[in-house]
């Protein structure tokens, strides 16, 4: 629309250039996701690729009668999970479950357990590639704490979390949702309750042998099945973390036994931030906590730069300016070429001010050779309990939910038996 409304040729050409740059940038982000997916499918012993997304909630309500829902509906969410080269899962979440970090973390944990049951978790320097929708429910402190924990427990050597551009997040899992949606739109698809809805999901993948191979396993979730990861991790999450909604690529990896997080604004960026500095002589931190969040106070040796000459250390703190991204030039994103940001890289002084998502950490190693590594310590300590407790549901909420269930069952019977008496053999 802005191009159509532009009043000068210069303005139109500039808008077209910006649009081409945007399209090429989002294309490169998709190619990065496709590359990770291909790696996992080509080397299942080394890598695992997972994408998680939610289906349009308006299409998953019941009762459903020939394309239409009743006046009063039972709301539920459908979260789809594709584990590339292994299988598909559908998580049906009822209205008693709150969205947020607890839910998406529970879905990921249960998916990994299902893959483990199949004996298909990678075991050779395993890497997890996780693709999520770019929203606050997915890009949150709790989920990232869980990813940090996966690396700390040596379930994965590395975890990469990717988020596509806002407005360009439709991917292969949306084709999976389209198959379900098309089946539910049929006139002969009737789902008066949740069990019949689950059956309809399975029926949507019966048209061909190829479709049968994509048939998902359905798992129902209610509030009593969700673990409280927020409470489990909150006391241990670094209090200085902020602005983690800005980058689109994250990596969790161990450095001498300590898990650090690094990020990139875009997948095409050459390096993760904060950048690693050169090897220096540094006294090892006295404790595990010191290794995570402090810099040794030992005086620098004569061959080191003085404190005033060292790069000012930036912290990933609230109130700091947001990270900036220097857009690549369009001619560097031509089809079939690799973007090189060497010419567009900012100076060291600019970089200090443009990347506040930085927490310095000393990594202990050989006593004669200490590596000074920059990274974000997502967890400054570790939970004492291995597994989090389930979410506590107040008794008053349980009573309200029970009353709603009884009322809804009565409503379904009264409305549905008049039009579809064959669906009911006895009264609820």
Describe the structure.
Helices cover 32% and strands 19% of the residues. It has helices spanning 2-5, 9-42, 101-117, 141-152, 172-184, 194-203, 209-213, 229-233, 288-293, 348-354, 395-419, and strands at 47-54, 62-65, 68-74, 76-83, 87-94, 127-132, 158-163, 190-191, 217-221, 249-255, 258-264, 360-366, 369-374.
Q: Identify low-pLDDT runs.
A: 278-372
The biggest sheet amounts to: 8 strands, mixed
Average pLDDT works out at 76
Structural class: alpha+beta
Proportion of residues in helical segments: 25-40%
Major sheet: order of its strands?
9-5-4-1-6-7-10-11
Helical run tally: 11
Strand content: 15-25%
Work out the radius of gyration: 25 Å
Taken from the alpha-carbon principal axes, the silhouette is globular
* SSE arrangement, N to C: HHEEEEEHEHEHEHHEHEEHHEEH
| Separation of the first and last Cα atoms | 55 Å
List how many beta strands DSSP finds. Answer: 13
From the structure above, extract its key features.
globular; eight-stranded mixed β-sheet; 11 helices; 19% strand; three-stranded antiparallel β-sheet; alpha+beta; 428 residues
Topology record:
Elements: H1 2-5, H2 9-42, E1 47-54, E2 62-65, E3 68-74, E4 76-83, E5 87-94, H3 101-117, E6 127-132, H4 141-152, E7 158-163, H5 172-184, E8 190-191, H6 194-203, H7 209-213, E9 217-221, H8 229-233, E10 249-255, E11 258-264, H9 288-293, H10 348-354, E12 360-366, E13 369-374, H11 395-419
Parallel strand pairs: 1-6, 5-9, 6-7
Antiparallel strand pairs: 1-4, 2-3, 2-8, 4-5, 7-10, 10-11, 12-13
Helix pairs in contact: 3-4
């Amino acid at each position: 629309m802005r191009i159509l409304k532009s009043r000068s040729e210069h303005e139109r050409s500039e808008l077209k250039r910006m649009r081409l740059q945007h399209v090429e940038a989002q294309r490169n982000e998709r190619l990065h996701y496709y590359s990770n997916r291909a790696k996992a499918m080509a080397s299942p012993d080394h890598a695992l690729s997972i994408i998680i997304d939610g289906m349009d909630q308006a299409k998953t309500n019941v009762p459903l009668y020939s394309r239409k829902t009743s006046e009063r509906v039972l709301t539920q969410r459908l979260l789809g999970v594709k584990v590339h080269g292994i299988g598909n899962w559908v998580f049906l979440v009822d209205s008693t479950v709150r969205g947020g970090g607890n839910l998406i973390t529970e879905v990921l944990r249960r998916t990994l357990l299902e893959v483990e049951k199949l004996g298909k978790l990678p075991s050779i320097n395993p890497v997890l590639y996780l693709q999520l929708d770019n929203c606050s429910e997915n890009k949150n402190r709790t989920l990232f704490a869980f990813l940090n924990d996966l690396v700390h427990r040596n379930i994965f050597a590395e975890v990469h979390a990717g988020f596509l551009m806002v407005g360009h997040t439709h991917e292969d899992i949306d084709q999976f949702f389209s198959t379900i949606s098309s089946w539910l739109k049929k006139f002969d698809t009737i789902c008066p309750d949740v069990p019949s809805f689950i059956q309809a999901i399975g029926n949507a993948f019966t048209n061909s042998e190829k479709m049968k191979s994509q048939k998902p396993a359905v798992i129902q979730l209610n509030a009593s099945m969700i673990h409280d990861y927020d409470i489990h991790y909150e006391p241990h999450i670094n209090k200085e973390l902020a602005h983690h909604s800005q980058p689109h690529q994250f990596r969790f990896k161990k450095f001498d036994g300590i898990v650090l997080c690094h990020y990139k604004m875009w997948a095409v960026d050459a390096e993760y931030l904060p950048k690693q500095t050169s090897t220096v002589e540094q006294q090892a931190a006295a404790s595990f906590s010191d290794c995570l969040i402090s810099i040794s106070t030992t005086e620098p040796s004569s061959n080191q730069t003085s404190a005033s000459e060292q790069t000012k250390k930036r912290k990933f703190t609230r109130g700091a300016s947001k990270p900036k991204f220097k857009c690549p030039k369009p001619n560097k994103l031509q089809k079939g070429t690799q973007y090189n940001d060497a010419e567009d890289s900012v100076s060291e002084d600019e970089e200090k001010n443009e990347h506040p998502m930085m927490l310095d950490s000393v990594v202990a190693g050989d006593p004669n050779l200490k590596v000074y590594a920059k990274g974000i310590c997502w967890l400054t300590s570790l939970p004492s309990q291995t597994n989090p407790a389930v979410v506590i549901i107040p008794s008053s909420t349980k009573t309200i939910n029970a009353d709603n269930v009884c009322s809804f069952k009565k409503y379904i019977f009264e409305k549905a038996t008049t039009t579809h008496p064959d669906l009911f053999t006895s009264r609820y």
